[in-house]
Design a protein that fits this description.
With 420 residues, the protein is of the alpha/beta class. It contains 13 helices and 18 strands. The strands form five sheets. It has a five-stranded parallel sheet with strand order 4-3-2-5-6, with helices on both faces. A five-stranded parallel sheet has the order 16-15-14-17-18. A four-stranded parallel sheet has the order 10-9-8-11. The relative contact order is 0.14. The mean pLDDT is 96. InterPro entries: Acnase/IPM_dHydase_lsu_aba_1/3 (IPR015931), Acoase/IPM_deHydtase_lsu_aba (IPR001030), Aconitase_4Fe-4S_dom (IPR036008), HAcnase/IPMdehydase_lsu_prok (IPR011826), Homoacnase/IPMdehydase_lsu (IPR006251), IPM_dehydratase_rel_enz (IPR050067).
């Protein structure tokens, strides 16, 4: 019998079984996230299931991030309900303005190598960058976990993503993710794990890996997972005192396929409206007019992302007339770091609008909504029609640097033209 992938090993450990791809297993959950977009329904299910107390409150986390700030009495009421439940049951709750739940799970050291971490939001896959088996679940799953501490899963097959070489100037992690979406399509990895490997990993910082894991679900993947290394441990140092056991694949692990991507040869990419996998080299979309640029989300709202965008904006002289640049830090920690090193002031001086940490405009539930006919270039992970709250707007997806280049020129532009 062949060896095991990272996902097979983690699910074997969490189920206490010899788990192989295709097996159905019941696993102990290390941490489960719920947001204001999913918890209210989970609380309904919790009551219907006869829930009275939580199996382990320390393993449950709530985040108010989708409706920040709440724009109606209804959404404010959802927040009140979550606060009351969290206080009653001893659940950790990240309140309005603390940031996006996915970013907070990472920052607070709640997703550790070898863990099984889930979230009632599809982009919970983000934590796979830390060597966790991380996946999105539904509200009913969250309710069941709150009561039992367990979840049932089908063990996924794995696709090995081998990265070679090193990114060149003007090319970033988002370009890798979009290139993979271009190769796999929106369902090319359906219910499979993307397991990242290869010598190119040593050149990707933890923030880069978070982008790749985050976008895995846009290819249909169950999860996107990295091996743990010195960068993983360095990021977690000071964020957790909890011991962990990293998981590597066996040398003879079986994969459904392998994709090799040469980072040296990669060029900037952009996803055209209204599909994430409608990806082309950015230069093929050059000169398309842009009226709004959005920097933020659980994909592109970290300090490193804002530094990349700021550098392009500075080199290009700021935001072009007629362009609205909206900046939403992924968390208060990110916002504080931006304020401390001058990045926040730079953005204001260069013509940006600053929005409180949270999901912001990404899902169209709050924040700045684009007008009819507006072309938006965004660091987000989805560009479906109506995604940002207006079905008459068109959303393009690109790296922070490419987004900033569009803000400078008022049209889709290769960032290498501004910062060669």
């Amino acid at each position: 019998m062949t060896g095991k992938t990272i996902s097979e090993k983690i699910l074997s450990r969490k189920s206490g079984q010899d788990a192989r791809a295709g097996d159905l297993v019941v696993c102990a959950v290390d941490c489960a996230l719920g947001t204001d977009g999913s918890v209210p329904m989970a609380l309904d299910y919790f009551a219907q299931m006869g829930g009275e107390r939580l199996h382990d409150p320390a393993r449950i986390v709530f985040a108010l991030d989708h409706y920040v700030p709440p724009s109606s009495a209804k959404t404010a009421g959802l927040h009140q309900r979550m606060r009351a439940f969290a206080a009653l049951h001893g659940v950790a709750l990240h309140d309005v303005g603390e940031g996006i739940g996915h970013q907070l799970i990472v920052e607070t050291g709640r997703a550790l190598p070898g863990d099984l971490v889930v979230g009632a939001d599809s982009h919970a896959v983000t934590y796979g960058a830390l060597n966790s088996f991380a996946t999105g679940i539904g509200s009913s799953d969250l309710a069941a976990i709150m009561i039992t501490g367990q979840i049932w899963l089908r063990v996924p097959q794995s696709i090995r993503i081998t990265l070679t070489g090193r990114l060149t100037a003007g090319v970033y992690a988002k370009d890798i993710a979009l290139a993979l979406a271009e190769t796999l399509g929106a369902d090319g990895a359906a219910y499979q794990a993307l397991e990242f490997a290869g010598p190119g990993l040593q050149h990707l910082e933890l923030e880069d890996r978070l982008v790749l894991s985050n976008l895995a679900v846009e290819m249909g993947a169950k999860n996107g997972i990295f091996p743990a290394d010195a960068q993983t441990r360095a990021y977690l140092a000071g964020r957790t005192a909890q011991a962990f056991e990293a998981v590597d694949p066996d040398p003879d692990a079986a994969y459904s396929r392998e994709i090799v991507l040469d980072l040296d040869a990669l060029t900037p990419r952009i996803a055209l409206p209204h599909l994430v996998d409608r990806v082309v080299p950015l230069q093929e979309a050059a000169q398309i007019p842009v009226q709004m640029v959005y920097l933020g989300t659980c994909t592109g709202g970290r300090l490193r992302d804002f530094h990349q965008a700021r550098d392009v904006l500075k080199a290009g002289g700021g935001v072009a007339p007629g362009v609205q640049l909206v900046v939403t830090p992924a968390s208060r920690e990110v916002q504080d770091a931006m304020e401390a090193d001058g990045t926040l002031a730079d953005f204001v001086a260069l013509g940006a609008e600053i929005v409180p940490p949270g999901c912001g405009s990404c899902c169209g539930t709050c924040g700045v909504i684009p007008g009819d006919g507006v072309n938006v270039v965004s660091t987000a992970n989805r560009n479906f029609k109506g995604r940002m709250g207006n079905a008459s707007a068109s959303i393009f997806l690109a790296s922070p640097a490419s987004c900033a280049a569009a803000a400078v020129r008022g049209a889709i532009t290769d960032p290498r033209e501004i910062t060669p």
